[in-house]
């Protein structure tokens, strides 16, 4: 495993060319005016490339009907399918039927489409329990269904995959946050290693038996026969950061690029790093991993709008999508109240941009979200 150090993370504060432009009103176009949308992942092929079916990309988002306080969305989150094509975005409905999930709500994951363009495997997080219990319990599940040009059906009974063991990873079974933090065991990101053909799941985890609240790790499980074998964490951030969210790997030019998102408030005191997309690079999944751009920061929110976007996802083609969080604050804060949050929450896809890869250096490239 590789440790992300305080010194490396702190250097993110002095990486100005990794800061994103300010999001303006013209950039906040609702995909679905009736719903708040956030964390997203595309339907991909096993090799990591984005699946194009009927000339469209297909994306799952976490989605909820718009409510008074957007912060309440996490308690009722459902996975919903949208597609993106030349005519913009289309809504294709909920991924699962009511009562399908083993949890009280659905959190992030990943999805892989087979070569037949019909067999779809979904990895997702079941948060809480269907019949009650610890609200922030997190378990990872896999289900296989049928994808028919935007229609989803015939999902198999969800099977639990990687499981918290209390050895490599703390078991996430809290009933309430502590100091606005919850322990993690979520966000299964599928990855098939091109060097070995072996299938892996990366996930957001917390280290066990650690006194420091900043105990974030990126976990790994490997498919063994009909099950998944737990592996030691790929990256640890003990004493540095408490949440390394939505980890996923993109392979470029023979190198493995591991990406995750985190928020400024999750860093330990004294680490003045921004909310952003972070990553490391290695020659193999076993590592050792080196922080991209020296600090790990790939794309950070601008200094003037530190809350404007979150949860970046990098496709196999090097495109990056995220969601508009609290934008246009001009020095304000989401802590100013429910009405203020509702007014300033984007709840839609942020402008898309691209990445240029050159060894340990990854730079932002002009695109929908960057000025040329």
From TrEMBL:
Q: Does the keyword RNA-binding apply?
A: no
Where is substrate annotated to bind?
108
Q: Which GO terms describe its biological process?
A: carbohydrate utilization
Where are the residues marked Transition state stabilizer as a site?
187
- Kindly state which keywords UniProt assigns to this record, in alphabetical order: Glycosyltransferase, Transferase
**Gene Ontology MF terms in the entry:** levansucrase activity
For this protein, the record's SUPFAM superfamilies field holds: Arabinanase/levansucrase/invertase (SSF75005)
| EC nos | 2.4.1.10
Q: Name one Pfam family in it.
A: Glyco_hydro_68
Superkingdom: Bacteria
Q: Which InterPro entries match?
A: Glyco_hydro_68, Glyco_hydro_beta-prop_sf
Family in the record: Belongs to the glycosyl hydrolase 68 family.
> What's the name of the protein?
Levansucrase
- Native organism is Sphingomonas jinjuensis
């Amino acid at each position: 495993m590789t440790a992300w150090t305080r010194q490396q993370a702190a250097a993110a504060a002095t990486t100005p060319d990794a800061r994103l432009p300010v999001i303006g009103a013209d950039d906040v176009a609702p995909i679905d005016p009736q719903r708040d949308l956030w964390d997203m992942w595309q339907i991909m092929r096993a090799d990591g490339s984005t699946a194009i079916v009927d000339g469209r990309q297909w994306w799952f988002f976490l989605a909820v009907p718009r409510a008074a306080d957007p912060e309440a969305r996490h308690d009722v989150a459902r996975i919903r399918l949208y597609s993106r094509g030349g005519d913009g975005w289309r809504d294709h409905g909920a991924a699962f039927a009511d009562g399908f999930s083993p949890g009280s709500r659905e959190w992030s994951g990943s999805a892989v489409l087979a070569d037949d363009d019909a067999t779809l495997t979904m990895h997702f997080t079941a948060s809480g329990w269907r019949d009650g219990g610890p609200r922030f319990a997190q378990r990872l599940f896999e289900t296989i269904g049928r994808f028919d040009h935007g229609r989803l059906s015939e999902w198999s009974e969800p099977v639990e995959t990687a499981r918290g063991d209390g050895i490599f990873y703390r078991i996430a079974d809290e009933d309430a946050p502590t100091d606005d933090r919850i322990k993690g065991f979520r966000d299964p990101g599928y990855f098939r290693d091109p060097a070995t053909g072996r299938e892996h799941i990366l996930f957001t985890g917390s280290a066990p038996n650690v006194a420091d609240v900043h105990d974030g790790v990126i976990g790994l499980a490997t498919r063994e026969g009909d099950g998944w074998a737990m592996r030691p964490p790929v990256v640890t951030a003990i004493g540095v950061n408490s949440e390394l969210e939505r980890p996923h790997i993109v392979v470029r030019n023979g190198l493995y690029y591991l990406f995750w998102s985190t928020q400024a408030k999750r860093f330990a005191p004294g680490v003045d790093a921004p909310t952003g997309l972070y990553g490391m690079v290695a020659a193999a999944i076993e590592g050792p991993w080196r922080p991209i751009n020296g600090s790990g920061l790939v794309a950070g929110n601008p200094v003037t709008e530190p809350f404007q976007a979150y949860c970046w996802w990098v496709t196999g083609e090097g495109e990056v999508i995220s969601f508009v969080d609290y934008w246009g604050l001009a020095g304000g804060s989401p802590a100013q109240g429910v009405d203020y949050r509702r007014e300033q929450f984007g709840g839609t896809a942020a402008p898309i941009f691209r990445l240029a890869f050159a060894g340990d250096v990854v730079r932002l490239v002009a695109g929908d979200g960057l000025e040329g």
